[in-house]
Design a protein that fits this description.
The structure is a homodimer. By secondary structure, chain A is mainly alpha-helical. Chain A contains ten helices and three strands, in the order ααβααββαααααα. The N and C termini of chain A lie far apart (57 Å). The longest helix of chain A has 28 residues, at 205-232. In chain A, helix 3 (45-52) packs across helix 4, helix 7 (136-153) packs antiparallel against helix 8 (157-179) and helix 9 (188-201) runs antiparallel to helix 10 (205-232). Chain A folds into two domains: 2-82, Winged helix-like DNA-binding domain superfamily/Winged helix DNA-binding domain (Arc Repressor Mutant, subunit A), CATH 1.10.10; 87-232, Four Helix Bundle (Hemerythrin (Met), subunit A) (Up-down Bundle), CATH 1.20.120.530. Chain A has helices spanning 2-13, 19-33, 45-52, 56-68, 90-111, 114-133, 136-153, 157-179, 188-201, 205-232, and strands at 42-43, 72-75, 79-82. Chain A binds chain B through residues 17-18, 57, 60-61, 64-65, 68-69, 76-77, 86, 89, 92-93, 95-97, 99, 103, 155-159, 161-162, 165-166, 169, and chain B through 17-18, 57, 60-61, 64-65, 68-69, 76-77, 86, 89, 92-93, 95-97, 99, 103, 155-159, 161-162, 165-166, 169. Chain A binds a DNA duplex through helix 4.
Chain lengths: 239, 239
DNA sequence: CAGCTTGATTTTGTCGACAAACTGAATACA
DNA sequence: TGTATTCAGTTTGTCGACAAAATCAAGCTG
């Protein structure tokens, strides 16, 4: 009895070897992407190692990985901080995202298997459910999964990687964007998703690409409008 | 006298703080990309730290960064090895590279400044010189710089990053490819480059994109032919 | 009073050590 | 003979400590 309890406690305390850096990495990444850690926030290694209850080595490893993803910026011998949001480059971002999503959606329409389709539809339903409940974080999460499910169906490792990078990069902007609506997120996104799914199901490449393009442009346009209003509220665009 | 020598020696020995990991990172990356370190080669942290004359920490940092770039693969608690060359996915790679180069070349034709043009032409000349001398490494280096100069002119940070990633990923294949010719690399590459530069100079977007496409397809086709012959020679395609 | 220097404090980069996880060979057993 | 097990030897993941570099305040000089 006592022994069993002790052992359980031990497995809870003593993390498995190698999980330390991984945990810090995932947790920090999550916090950064959902804006719990704000752009330009300072990340102190000692403070973090204390917070996570481990030495600086795994924390350091996590920060290095995050810096390679562009989510934190490391000033040598000085400090590392959460990467500033480069909203000045939003137009460039949209261009790149449009390009990649158009081609992945087209390829998905061409190559999708039945299993791919099933996965995509499942993500779509998750999104609808999250929106119905009004859970912004879940909406963003399932929205990303929806689009990644599409690029998975495109069967191109390189495009898939690029797509994932772009979606991660845009995640923080998406949080700003969705929050701007409060609890009443427009249903245009769902409508777009429906059209894309239908085109992929029917394997209509041209239509799929076209809907993907419209989707990106629609979201981008709304966000740009939002940005215009946001800038008036004295938001620090760059640091 | 003796003191001066001693001091100089000291500055040579004692690297500047922060340069350690950077040096290992750059050197390993260079060796991996030019195939001095062969795919699936084992990278031992202790051995590397001994070779570079420093502790394991900076070596470890370098390996983490390389793993985030996909140049090494880390098997947790086991070992890390040079990333295997995924030649099975060469077709996917070509598709992605074609996409990115077409759009960056098009944008470059649209947005290039005089300075951009100058930089691009300078890289082109470097390439010609390297080919004339028959220096394969320099050819690859300047070829990459040539294409990066174009995507720099496209003024899109995201596309530029994706492009750089793809070119790095393809660098090792390019080494195989160029080496297959021995000292007599075909001049089709130069011709392609000439056409691209002309189109960019004339700001003819359609032509620029078209030439970029032809260039990628041409190199891809030749490489695929080479691969066919290579596979016959019992090369381990994947590991 | 402005600007530079000095010195104390903080934070990072590097080091050496240790324990956990894996490897592989030698041994025991069916 | 073939399979499982134990026990060494590596190699990695994590730790605590220290020195270099930056930060910042106080003091000095003109």
């Amino acid at each position: 009895m006592n022994l069993a309890v002790k052992e359980k406690k031990k497995t809870a305390e003593v993390r498995r070897r190698g999980s330390g850096a991984q945990r810090v990495y995932e947790e920090l990444k999550r916090d950064i992407l959902c804006l719990d850690l704000k752009p330009s926030d300072l990340l102190d290694e000692s403070a973090l190692s204390q917070k996570f209850g481990m030495s600086r080595s795994p924390v350091r490893e996590a920060l290095i990985r995050l810096s390679m993803e562009g989510l934190v910026v490391t000033l040598p011998n000085k400090s590392t901080l959460v990467a500033p949001l480069g909203l000045e480059e939003f137009q460039s971002y949209l261009d790149a995202l449009d390009l990649v999503q158009r081609v992945t959606t087209r390829l998905a329409a061409r190559l999708r298997t039945q299993a791919d389709l099933k996965a995509i539809i499942a993500r779509e339903k998750e999104y609808k459910k999250a929106r119905a409940v009004g859970n912004v974080s879940d909406m963003i999460e399932s929205n990303l999964k929806f689009h990644m499910a599409i690029s998975n169906a495109a069967r191109n490792k390189y495009l898939d990687f690029l797509h994932a990078r772009l979606l991660d990069d845009g995640r923080r902007m998406l949080h700003l964007y969705f929050r701007s609506f409060g609890d009443a997120v427009p249903e245009s996104t769902e409508h777009d998703h429906d059209l894309i799914v239908k085109a992929i199901r029917n394997q209509d490449e041209d239509l799929a690409e076209s809907h993907a393009h419209d989707h990106v442009m629609g979201v981008g346009k709304q966000f740009l409008g939002y940005l215009g209003a946001y800038q008036l509220t004295d938001f620090k665009l760059s640091v």
